[in-house]
Amino acid sequence: MPAVTADTLTLPRLPALPEDGTAWRRVRATVRAGTFTEGEGFQVRRPFPSVDLAMADPFLLLDHMGAVEYGPGEAKGAPWHPHRGFETVTYMIDGAMAHTDSIGGGGLITDGSTQWMTAGSGILHNEVPPPELVAKGGLFHGVQLWVNLPRSLKMTPPRYQDIGASDARLLASDDGGALVRVIAGDLAGHRGPGATYTPITYVHATVAAGARLDMPWPEDFNALVYVLSGRGAVGPEGRPLAEGELAVFTAGSALTVRAADTQPGNSPTWEILVLGGLPINEPVARYGPFVMNTRQEIVDAFEDYQAGRLGRIPAAHLSAADLDPHAR
């Protein structure tokens, strides 16, 4: 890790921010991710939703998958299931995941690429390891983020975006000690490739041991830092933050983080996600794969799913049980 690398000396630089006069965001809270089992039986680390952090408006869920070295036959995925009312963003750092959906979107998400699925009014999809990963095993490491949609866009038509690894906007910190990949949104005037309904910024940064990363941050966005691997400190107070931990920040116009001088043996750099978005500030009703504004809208979503109004599994992906009603 990571899959996408570059020589930071050749990249555009983030601006140097003055120590004095900058409204640095401080750390409001830190959360350690819990471990959960999803899909056909793969484990994820999830900092939210949790007892300590119900949600981080406009973000609904963050699942960290791996890093894990699968043996032959061990890789598992999430078979066909519905969604409505939000967007799923799957970022694969290492390994591969195959995606198919009921509107014809899909493909192989691999080695630094991102699959952005807007469920909107409703969609069916699956996320499974490709046959070669199942057969041979291998490294698997990725993240899935759920981004809420405002009431006015809950029933927008579903869409799919395939963002290749080479599409991410690459930047360097002001001293070249950190590589910054902008997947979506704007960072210091540099835009990522992801098209978002809800205004957000989504960044993956690799910070060299002992290096510091300063970033201007929209004052009307929230701000989160999640550690994929390694260890460091966040905020002007230098709050320690290690793998599987999430920091939630107070208001301000800039973020500062610093990698520890020495890193764990399996992680020569500090790998972090930096997330922020414009809070929607609307009621949230959620149950399983549906996120709406009211309980009745959740009931409606289940009824629409059962009636086939959220889409149907493409014929090429139907199993024998799906084709034979007597097999159920």
Automatic annotation (TrEMBL):
Superkingdom of source: Bacteria
Keyword tags: Iron, Metal-binding
Keyword Iron applies: yes
Homology family: Belongs to the pirin family.
Cofactor: Fe cation
Cofactor note (record): Binds 1 Fe cation per subunit.
Xref: SUPFAM superfamilies: RmlC-like cupins (SSF51182)
Naturally occurring in which organism (per UniProt): Actinokineospora auranticolor
Keyword check for Iron: yes
GO molecular function, one term: metal ion binding
Stored Pfam families: Pirin, Pirin_C
Binding site for Fe cation: H81, H83, H125, E127
Signal peptide: none
Protein name, per record: Pirin family protein
InterPro entries, per database record: Pirin, Pirin_C_dom, Pirin_N_dom, RmlC-like_jellyroll, RmlC_Cupin_sf
Pirin C-terminal domain span: 202-310
